[in-house]
Amino acid sequence: MGHAGSRWQASGDSEEEDEDVAPSGESEATLDACSQWRNKVGFWLLGLCNNFAYVVMLSAAHDILSHQKVPEHNGTGPIPPSVSPANTSINTSRYDCNTISTGAVLLADILPTLFIKFSAPFCIHLFPYGLRVAICVVSAWGSFLLVAFSTSTTQSLLGVVLASISSGLGEITFLALTSFFNSAVISAWSSGTGGAGLIGALSYLGLTQAGLTPQDTLLFMTIVPVIMLGSYCFLLAPPPQAPRCGWGVCKPKSPRALSVAQQPLLGSKTTLPQATQRPQLTLQQKGQVVKGLLKYLIPLSIVYFAEYFINQGLFELLYFQKAALSHPQQYRWYQMLYQAGVFISRSSASCIKIRKIWLLSVLQCLNMVFLLAAVSYVFLPSIYVAFVLIFYEGLLGGAAYVNTFLCISKESQLEHREFTMGVACIADTLGISLSGAIAIPVHDYFCHLP
Protein backbone atom coordinates (compact mmCIF):
# COMPACT_ATOMS: atom_id res chain seq x y z
CA MET A 1 0.00 0.00 0.00
CA GLY A 2 2.74 2.45 0.92
CA HIS A 3 4.42 1.67 -2.38
CA ALA A 4 1.47 3.20 -4.27
CA GLY A 5 1.67 6.40 -2.28
CA SER A 6 5.40 6.76 -2.88
CA ARG A 7 5.07 6.14 -6.61
CA TRP A 8 2.36 8.75 -6.82
CA GLN A 9 4.72 11.41 -5.47
CA ALA A 10 8.07 10.09 -6.64
CA SER A 11 10.27 12.19 -8.89
CA GLY A 12 13.67 10.55 -8.81
CA ASP A 13 16.13 10.77 -11.71
CA SER A 14 15.87 7.11 -12.60
CA GLU A 15 12.10 7.32 -12.84
CA GLU A 16 12.40 10.40 -15.04
CA GLU A 17 14.61 8.46 -17.42
CA ASP A 18 12.01 5.69 -17.57
CA GLU A 19 9.29 8.24 -18.36
CA ASP A 20 11.35 9.70 -21.19
CA VAL A 21 11.54 6.39 -23.01
CA ALA A 22 8.33 4.61 -22.04
CA PRO A 23 5.87 4.52 -24.92
CA SER A 24 2.41 5.48 -23.74
CA GLY A 25 0.85 2.51 -25.49
CA GLU A 26 2.96 0.16 -23.39
CA SER A 27 2.47 1.98 -20.09
CA GLU A 28 -0.33 -0.21 -18.79
CA ALA A 29 1.63 -3.30 -19.79
CA THR A 30 4.39 -2.20 -17.40
CA LEU A 31 1.97 -2.61 -14.51
CA ASP A 32 1.63 -6.12 -13.17
CA ALA A 33 -1.75 -7.79 -12.71
CA CYS A 34 -1.82 -6.83 -9.04
CA SER A 35 -1.33 -3.15 -9.85
CA GLN A 36 -4.04 -3.22 -12.48
CA TRP A 37 -6.40 -4.88 -10.01
CA ARG A 38 -5.55 -2.24 -7.40
CA ASN A 39 -6.32 0.52 -9.89
CA LYS A 40 -9.73 -0.95 -10.63
CA VAL A 41 -10.53 -1.34 -6.94
CA GLY A 42 -9.13 2.12 -6.24
CA PHE A 43 -11.32 3.83 -8.83
CA TRP A 44 -14.33 1.81 -7.68
CA LEU A 45 -13.83 3.08 -4.13
CA LEU A 46 -13.21 6.63 -5.36
CA GLY A 47 -16.49 6.52 -7.28
CA LEU A 48 -18.27 5.12 -4.23
CA CYS A 49 -16.91 7.70 -1.81
CA ASN A 50 -17.21 10.63 -4.21
CA ASN A 51 -20.97 10.24 -4.72
CA PHE A 52 -21.81 8.93 -1.26
CA ALA A 53 -22.51 12.26 0.49
CA TYR A 54 -24.47 13.51 -2.53
CA VAL A 55 -26.70 10.42 -2.49
CA VAL A 56 -27.21 10.46 1.27
CA MET A 57 -28.31 14.10 1.19
CA LEU A 58 -30.97 13.27 -1.41
CA SER A 59 -32.08 10.20 0.56
CA ALA A 60 -32.33 12.37 3.66
CA ALA A 61 -34.11 15.20 1.84
CA HIS A 62 -37.48 14.46 3.43
CA ASP A 63 -35.90 14.43 6.90
CA ILE A 64 -33.76 17.50 6.21
CA LEU A 65 -36.84 19.53 5.38
CA SER A 66 -38.39 18.31 8.64
CA HIS A 67 -35.31 19.51 10.58
CA GLN A 68 -33.95 15.94 10.83
CA LYS A 69 -36.71 14.90 13.20
CA VAL A 70 -37.97 11.34 12.85
CA PRO A 71 -41.47 10.79 14.19
CA GLU A 72 -42.46 8.28 16.81
CA HIS A 73 -41.50 4.70 15.88
CA ASN A 74 -38.94 6.23 13.52
CA GLY A 75 -41.42 6.58 10.70
CA THR A 76 -42.64 2.99 10.88
CA GLY A 77 -46.24 3.83 11.68
CA PRO A 78 -48.85 6.55 11.26
CA ILE A 79 -47.72 10.00 12.35
CA PRO A 80 -49.99 11.49 14.99
CA PRO A 81 -50.99 15.09 14.26
CA SER A 82 -49.39 16.20 17.53
CA VAL A 83 -46.02 14.85 16.46
CA SER A 84 -45.89 16.35 12.99
CA PRO A 85 -44.62 19.96 13.12
CA ALA A 86 -47.22 22.40 11.92
CA ASN A 87 -44.87 23.98 9.41
CA THR A 88 -43.89 20.80 7.63
CA SER A 89 -47.21 19.90 5.97
CA ILE A 90 -49.81 21.59 3.89
CA ASN A 91 -52.86 20.05 5.49
CA THR A 92 -55.38 21.52 3.04
CA SER A 93 -54.00 19.44 0.15
CA ARG A 94 -54.88 15.88 -0.76
CA TYR A 95 -51.11 15.30 -0.98
CA ASP A 96 -48.93 14.81 2.11
CA CYS A 97 -46.41 17.59 1.42
CA ASN A 98 -43.56 19.43 3.05
CA THR A 99 -43.94 23.16 2.69
CA ILE A 100 -40.64 23.17 0.80
CA SER A 101 -40.15 20.80 -2.13
CA THR A 102 -37.36 18.25 -1.92
CA GLY A 103 -36.31 19.93 -5.16
CA ALA A 104 -34.83 22.64 -2.90
CA VAL A 105 -32.44 20.03 -1.49
CA LEU A 106 -31.67 18.90 -5.02
CA LEU A 107 -30.78 22.46 -6.07
CA ALA A 108 -28.54 22.91 -3.03
CA ASP A 109 -26.99 19.55 -3.89
CA ILE A 110 -26.38 20.33 -7.56
CA LEU A 111 -25.95 24.08 -8.25
CA PRO A 112 -22.43 24.28 -6.75
CA THR A 113 -21.56 21.21 -8.79
CA LEU A 114 -22.90 22.89 -11.92
CA PHE A 115 -20.74 25.96 -11.32
CA ILE A 116 -17.64 23.82 -10.71
CA LYS A 117 -18.19 21.71 -13.81
CA PHE A 118 -18.78 24.68 -16.09
CA SER A 119 -15.66 26.50 -14.94
CA ALA A 120 -13.26 23.68 -14.05
CA PRO A 121 -12.46 22.30 -17.54
CA PHE A 122 -10.98 25.67 -18.47
CA CYS A 123 -8.89 26.32 -15.35
CA ILE A 124 -8.69 23.18 -13.21
CA HIS A 125 -5.38 22.14 -14.83
CA LEU A 126 -3.78 24.91 -12.76
CA PHE A 127 -4.42 22.92 -9.57
CA PRO A 128 -2.67 19.62 -8.74
CA TYR A 129 -4.70 16.46 -8.31
CA GLY A 130 -3.69 16.08 -4.67
CA LEU A 131 -5.03 19.50 -3.72
CA ARG A 132 -8.33 18.81 -5.46
CA VAL A 133 -8.74 15.51 -3.62
CA ALA A 134 -7.97 17.22 -0.29
CA ILE A 135 -10.74 19.75 -0.94
CA CYS A 136 -13.15 16.92 -1.79
CA VAL A 137 -12.35 15.04 1.41
CA VAL A 138 -12.68 18.06 3.71
CA SER A 139 -15.91 19.22 2.04
CA ALA A 140 -17.57 15.80 2.27
CA TRP A 141 -16.54 15.39 5.91
CA GLY A 142 -17.81 18.86 6.76
CA SER A 143 -21.13 18.26 5.01
CA PHE A 144 -21.98 15.30 7.22
CA LEU A 145 -21.10 17.23 10.38
CA LEU A 146 -22.94 20.41 9.41
CA VAL A 147 -26.17 18.62 8.50
CA ALA A 148 -25.97 16.33 11.53
CA PHE A 149 -25.66 19.22 14.00
CA SER A 150 -27.86 21.71 12.16
CA THR A 151 -30.69 23.45 13.98
CA SER A 152 -32.47 24.88 10.93
CA THR A 153 -33.26 24.01 7.34
CA THR A 154 -30.96 26.80 6.13
CA GLN A 155 -27.99 25.34 8.01
CA SER A 156 -28.83 21.90 6.66
CA LEU A 157 -28.89 23.19 3.10
CA LEU A 158 -25.44 24.74 3.64
CA GLY A 159 -24.22 21.29 4.55
CA VAL A 160 -25.79 19.94 1.39
CA VAL A 161 -23.88 22.60 -0.57
CA LEU A 162 -20.62 21.26 0.87
CA ALA A 163 -21.57 17.76 -0.29
CA SER A 164 -22.22 19.19 -3.75
CA ILE A 165 -18.80 20.87 -3.86
CA SER A 166 -17.13 17.60 -2.92
CA SER A 167 -19.06 15.52 -5.44
CA GLY A 168 -18.74 17.97 -8.35
CA LEU A 169 -15.04 18.63 -7.95
CA GLY A 170 -14.39 14.94 -7.34
CA GLU A 171 -16.22 13.79 -10.45
CA ILE A 172 -14.42 16.14 -12.81
CA THR A 173 -11.08 15.35 -11.12
CA PHE A 174 -11.32 11.56 -11.14
CA LEU A 175 -12.84 11.30 -14.61
CA ALA A 176 -9.95 13.40 -15.95
CA LEU A 177 -7.54 11.19 -14.03
CA THR A 178 -8.89 8.06 -15.78
CA SER A 179 -7.34 9.31 -19.03
CA PHE A 180 -3.90 8.33 -17.68
CA PHE A 181 -4.98 4.76 -16.89
CA ASN A 182 -6.32 1.82 -18.85
CA SER A 183 -9.90 2.41 -20.02
CA ALA A 184 -11.08 -0.42 -17.72
CA VAL A 185 -10.94 2.02 -14.79
CA ILE A 186 -13.80 4.00 -16.38
CA SER A 187 -16.13 1.05 -15.86
CA ALA A 188 -14.76 0.62 -12.34
CA TRP A 189 -15.38 4.30 -11.54
CA SER A 190 -18.88 4.14 -13.03
CA SER A 191 -19.72 1.01 -11.07
CA GLY A 192 -18.44 2.69 -7.90
CA THR A 193 -20.67 5.71 -8.42
CA GLY A 194 -23.59 3.35 -8.91
CA GLY A 195 -22.55 1.54 -5.76
CA ALA A 196 -22.61 4.86 -3.92
CA GLY A 197 -26.24 5.26 -4.88
CA LEU A 198 -27.22 1.80 -3.71
CA ILE A 199 -25.06 1.63 -0.59
CA GLY A 200 -25.74 5.26 0.37
CA ALA A 201 -29.51 5.01 0.03
CA LEU A 202 -29.64 1.53 1.56
CA SER A 203 -27.41 2.45 4.50
CA TYR A 204 -29.48 5.54 5.30
CA LEU A 205 -32.68 3.52 5.00
CA GLY A 206 -31.29 0.62 7.05
CA LEU A 207 -29.72 2.64 9.86
CA THR A 208 -32.77 4.85 10.36
CA GLN A 209 -35.04 1.80 10.13
CA ALA A 210 -32.90 0.10 12.78
CA GLY A 211 -33.60 2.95 15.20
CA LEU A 212 -30.77 5.43 14.69
CA THR A 213 -31.74 9.06 14.34
CA PRO A 214 -30.80 10.84 11.10
CA GLN A 215 -28.19 12.76 13.12
CA ASP A 216 -26.45 9.62 14.40
CA THR A 217 -26.67 8.09 10.93
CA LEU A 218 -24.90 11.06 9.34
CA LEU A 219 -22.20 11.07 12.02
CA PHE A 220 -21.56 7.37 11.38
CA MET A 221 -21.01 8.15 7.69
CA THR A 222 -18.09 10.53 8.33
CA ILE A 223 -15.83 7.49 7.81
CA VAL A 224 -16.52 7.61 4.04
CA PRO A 225 -14.30 10.65 3.23
CA VAL A 226 -11.47 8.95 5.12
CA ILE A 227 -11.83 5.92 2.84
CA MET A 228 -11.62 8.24 -0.19
CA LEU A 229 -8.37 9.71 1.08
CA GLY A 230 -6.88 6.26 1.73
CA SER A 231 -7.89 4.98 -1.70
CA TYR A 232 -6.24 7.89 -3.50
CA CYS A 233 -3.03 7.95 -1.45
CA PHE A 234 -2.35 4.27 -0.86
CA LEU A 235 -4.41 2.03 -3.14
CA LEU A 236 -3.87 3.42 -6.65
CA ALA A 237 -0.77 2.19 -8.49
CA PRO A 238 -0.27 4.94 -11.11
CA PRO A 239 1.42 4.08 -14.42
CA PRO A 240 4.61 5.96 -15.45
CA GLN A 241 2.64 8.52 -17.48
CA ALA A 242 0.33 9.55 -14.63
CA PRO A 243 1.10 13.00 -13.19
CA ARG A 244 3.38 12.83 -10.16
CA CYS A 245 1.16 14.92 -7.91
CA GLY A 246 1.30 14.89 -4.14
CA TRP A 247 -0.43 17.48 -2.03
CA GLY A 248 1.63 20.25 -3.62
CA VAL A 249 2.23 21.48 -7.14
CA CYS A 250 3.38 19.01 -9.81
CA LYS A 251 6.96 19.77 -10.81
CA PRO A 252 8.33 17.29 -13.36
CA LYS A 253 12.10 17.32 -13.82
CA SER A 254 12.09 18.38 -17.45
CA PRO A 255 9.80 19.67 -20.21
CA ARG A 256 9.90 16.25 -21.81
CA ALA A 257 8.82 14.61 -18.57
CA LEU A 258 5.96 17.07 -18.34
CA SER A 259 4.71 16.35 -21.84
CA VAL A 260 4.91 12.60 -21.34
CA ALA A 261 3.25 12.84 -17.94
CA GLN A 262 0.33 14.64 -19.53
CA GLN A 263 -0.03 12.06 -22.30
CA PRO A 264 -2.97 9.72 -21.66
CA LEU A 265 -2.47 5.99 -21.94
CA LEU A 266 -3.70 3.84 -24.81
CA GLY A 267 -1.36 5.49 -27.30
CA SER A 268 1.45 3.95 -29.32
CA LYS A 269 5.08 4.58 -30.21
CA THR A 270 4.04 6.36 -33.36
CA THR A 271 1.93 8.89 -31.48
CA LEU A 272 4.47 9.65 -28.76
CA PRO A 273 6.62 12.22 -30.61
CA GLN A 274 3.55 14.15 -31.69
CA ALA A 275 2.13 14.10 -28.15
CA THR A 276 5.47 15.23 -26.79
CA GLN A 277 5.36 18.37 -28.94
CA ARG A 278 1.68 19.18 -28.46
CA PRO A 279 0.72 22.54 -26.89
CA GLN A 280 -2.11 23.11 -24.45
CA LEU A 281 -5.56 23.36 -26.03
CA THR A 282 -6.65 26.92 -26.72
CA LEU A 283 -10.07 28.19 -25.70
CA GLN A 284 -11.23 28.00 -29.32
CA GLN A 285 -10.00 24.42 -29.65
CA LYS A 286 -11.81 23.48 -26.44
CA GLY A 287 -15.00 24.97 -27.85
CA GLN A 288 -14.65 22.84 -31.00
CA VAL A 289 -14.10 19.72 -28.90
CA VAL A 290 -17.24 20.45 -26.85
CA LYS A 291 -19.23 20.98 -30.07
CA GLY A 292 -18.24 17.50 -31.22
CA LEU A 293 -19.47 16.00 -27.95
CA LEU A 294 -23.00 17.42 -28.18
CA LYS A 295 -24.38 14.25 -29.78
CA TYR A 296 -23.70 12.54 -26.44
CA LEU A 297 -24.08 15.42 -24.01
CA ILE A 298 -27.59 16.51 -25.04
CA PRO A 299 -29.20 13.03 -24.70
CA LEU A 300 -27.42 12.48 -21.37
CA SER A 301 -28.69 15.83 -20.10
CA ILE A 302 -32.27 14.92 -21.10
CA VAL A 303 -32.03 11.55 -19.36
CA TYR A 304 -30.93 13.17 -16.13
CA PHE A 305 -33.51 15.94 -16.38
CA ALA A 306 -36.30 13.37 -16.62
CA GLU A 307 -35.09 11.07 -13.88
CA TYR A 308 -34.33 13.79 -11.34
CA PHE A 309 -37.65 15.47 -12.04
CA ILE A 310 -39.15 12.12 -11.06
CA ASN A 311 -36.90 11.77 -8.01
CA GLN A 312 -37.23 15.22 -6.48
CA GLY A 313 -40.46 16.43 -8.07
CA LEU A 314 -42.66 13.34 -7.92
CA PHE A 315 -41.30 10.93 -5.30
CA GLU A 316 -42.70 12.93 -2.39
CA LEU A 317 -46.10 13.23 -4.12
CA LEU A 318 -46.26 9.54 -5.06
CA TYR A 319 -47.72 8.59 -1.69
CA PHE A 320 -49.83 5.46 -1.13
CA GLN A 321 -51.91 6.02 2.01
CA LYS A 322 -53.06 2.40 2.28
CA ALA A 323 -49.55 0.96 2.04
CA ALA A 324 -47.92 -0.61 5.10
CA LEU A 325 -45.05 1.88 4.84
CA SER A 326 -45.24 5.41 6.22
CA HIS A 327 -44.59 8.39 3.97
CA PRO A 328 -40.93 8.85 5.06
CA GLN A 329 -40.36 5.11 4.58
CA GLN A 330 -41.90 5.18 1.10
CA TYR A 331 -39.61 8.05 0.10
CA ARG A 332 -36.52 6.19 1.35
CA TRP A 333 -37.55 3.01 -0.48
CA TYR A 334 -38.04 4.97 -3.70
CA GLN A 335 -34.51 6.35 -3.39
CA MET A 336 -33.06 2.93 -2.61
CA LEU A 337 -34.76 1.16 -5.54
CA TYR A 338 -33.75 3.91 -7.94
CA GLN A 339 -30.14 3.65 -6.81
CA ALA A 340 -30.26 -0.15 -7.11
CA GLY A 341 -31.22 0.21 -10.78
CA VAL A 342 -28.44 2.76 -11.31
CA PHE A 343 -25.85 0.46 -9.71
CA ILE A 344 -26.82 -2.54 -11.85
CA SER A 345 -26.76 -0.64 -15.14
CA ARG A 346 -23.57 1.29 -14.36
CA SER A 347 -21.88 -2.03 -13.64
CA SER A 348 -23.07 -3.67 -16.86
CA ALA A 349 -20.74 -1.99 -19.37
CA SER A 350 -18.71 -5.16 -19.90
CA CYS A 351 -21.88 -7.05 -20.88
CA ILE A 352 -24.09 -4.50 -22.62
CA LYS A 353 -22.87 -1.53 -24.67
CA ILE A 354 -25.32 1.08 -25.98
CA ARG A 355 -24.29 3.72 -28.52
CA LYS A 356 -27.74 5.23 -29.14
CA ILE A 357 -27.95 7.37 -26.00
CA TRP A 358 -30.88 9.29 -27.52
CA LEU A 359 -33.01 6.15 -27.25
CA LEU A 360 -32.46 6.07 -23.50
CA SER A 361 -33.49 9.73 -23.27
CA VAL A 362 -36.77 8.99 -25.09
CA LEU A 363 -37.56 6.07 -22.79
CA GLN A 364 -36.77 8.11 -19.68
CA CYS A 365 -39.02 10.98 -20.82
CA LEU A 366 -41.88 8.53 -21.40
CA ASN A 367 -41.33 7.19 -17.89
CA MET A 368 -41.44 10.74 -16.49
CA VAL A 369 -44.70 11.57 -18.30
CA PHE A 370 -46.32 8.34 -17.09
CA LEU A 371 -45.39 8.94 -13.45
CA LEU A 372 -46.50 12.58 -13.68
CA ALA A 373 -49.90 11.35 -14.87
CA ALA A 374 -49.92 8.80 -12.02
CA VAL A 375 -49.39 11.59 -9.49
CA SER A 376 -52.03 13.79 -11.10
CA TYR A 377 -54.77 11.19 -11.56
CA VAL A 378 -53.78 8.67 -8.84
CA PHE A 379 -54.45 5.57 -10.93
CA LEU A 380 -51.62 3.26 -9.85
CA PRO A 381 -53.22 0.27 -8.09
CA SER A 382 -50.30 -0.55 -5.80
CA ILE A 383 -47.04 0.84 -4.49
CA TYR A 384 -45.29 -2.18 -5.98
CA VAL A 385 -46.06 -0.91 -9.50
CA ALA A 386 -44.34 2.33 -8.52
CA PHE A 387 -41.40 0.30 -7.20
CA VAL A 388 -40.96 -1.40 -10.59
CA LEU A 389 -41.17 1.87 -12.53
CA ILE A 390 -38.63 3.55 -10.25
CA PHE A 391 -36.21 0.62 -10.54
CA TYR A 392 -36.59 0.84 -14.34
CA GLU A 393 -35.89 4.57 -14.14
CA GLY A 394 -32.58 3.83 -12.39
CA LEU A 395 -31.61 1.28 -15.04
CA LEU A 396 -32.08 3.85 -17.81
CA GLY A 397 -30.14 6.56 -16.00
CA GLY A 398 -27.19 4.35 -15.11
CA ALA A 399 -26.96 2.93 -18.64
CA ALA A 400 -26.93 6.44 -20.13
CA TYR A 401 -24.11 7.53 -17.80
CA VAL A 402 -21.66 4.68 -18.29
CA ASN A 403 -22.21 4.31 -22.04
CA THR A 404 -21.84 8.03 -22.66
CA PHE A 405 -18.41 8.15 -21.02
CA LEU A 406 -17.25 4.95 -22.70
CA CYS A 407 -18.24 6.31 -26.12
CA ILE A 408 -16.51 9.63 -25.46
CA SER A 409 -13.37 7.89 -24.23
CA LYS A 410 -13.15 5.70 -27.35
CA GLU A 411 -13.93 8.43 -29.88
CA SER A 412 -11.87 11.28 -28.42
CA GLN A 413 -8.41 12.02 -29.78
CA LEU A 414 -5.63 11.13 -27.36
CA GLU A 415 -4.53 14.73 -26.84
CA HIS A 416 -8.15 15.73 -26.05
CA ARG A 417 -9.14 12.85 -23.81
CA GLU A 418 -8.32 14.33 -20.41
CA PHE A 419 -10.30 17.47 -21.29
CA THR A 420 -13.28 15.62 -22.82
CA MET A 421 -13.67 13.26 -19.86
CA GLY A 422 -13.78 16.24 -17.54
CA VAL A 423 -16.10 18.45 -19.57
CA ALA A 424 -18.57 15.66 -20.43
CA CYS A 425 -19.78 15.41 -16.85
CA ILE A 426 -21.38 18.85 -17.24
CA ALA A 427 -24.30 17.30 -19.15
CA ASP A 428 -25.83 15.28 -16.33
CA THR A 429 -25.38 18.15 -13.87
CA LEU A 430 -27.11 20.61 -16.19
CA GLY A 431 -30.08 18.27 -16.61
CA ILE A 432 -30.31 17.74 -12.85
CA SER A 433 -30.20 21.49 -12.17
CA LEU A 434 -33.02 22.21 -14.61
CA SER A 435 -35.13 19.44 -13.11
CA GLY A 436 -34.65 20.82 -9.61
CA ALA A 437 -35.74 24.29 -10.71
CA ILE A 438 -38.90 22.92 -12.35
CA ALA A 439 -39.65 20.46 -9.55
CA ILE A 440 -40.26 23.25 -7.03
CA PRO A 441 -43.21 24.97 -8.83
CA VAL A 442 -44.64 21.58 -9.81
CA HIS A 443 -44.52 20.53 -6.14
CA ASP A 444 -46.21 23.77 -5.10
CA TYR A 445 -48.93 23.33 -7.72
CA PHE A 446 -49.88 19.85 -6.57
CA CYS A 447 -49.60 20.68 -2.87
CA HIS A 448 -52.07 23.57 -3.21
CA LEU A 449 -54.70 21.49 -4.96
CA PRO A 450 -57.76 20.94 -2.75
From TrEMBL:
On whether Transport is a keyword of this UniProt record, the answer is yes
Enumerate the InterPro entries for this protein: Battenin_disease_Cln3 (IPR003492), Battenin_disease_Cln3_subgr (IPR018460), MFS_trans_sf (IPR036259)
Record membrane topology: Multi-pass membrane protein
Cellular localization per UniProt = Late endosome; Lysosome membrane
Q: Which UniProt keywords apply?
A: Endosome, Glycoprotein, Lipoprotein, Lysosome, Membrane, Methylation, Phosphoprotein, Prenylation, Transmembrane, Transmembrane helix, Transport
Domain of life where this protein originates: Eukaryota
Q: Does the keyword Phosphoprotein apply?
A: yes
Q: List every stretch annotated Disordered.
A: 1-28
Residue intervals passing through the bilayer: 41-61, 129-150, 156-177, 184-206, 218-237, 357-377, 383-407, 419-440
**Where does the record place a coiled coil?**
none
Cellular component GO terms, alphabetical? early endosome; late endosome; lysosomal membrane; membrane raft; neuron projection; trans-Golgi network
Q: Name one GO biological process term.
A: amino acid transport
Give the family, as the similarity comment puts it: Belongs to the battenin family.
Q: What is this protein called?
A: Battenin
The protein's organism comes out as Python bivittatus
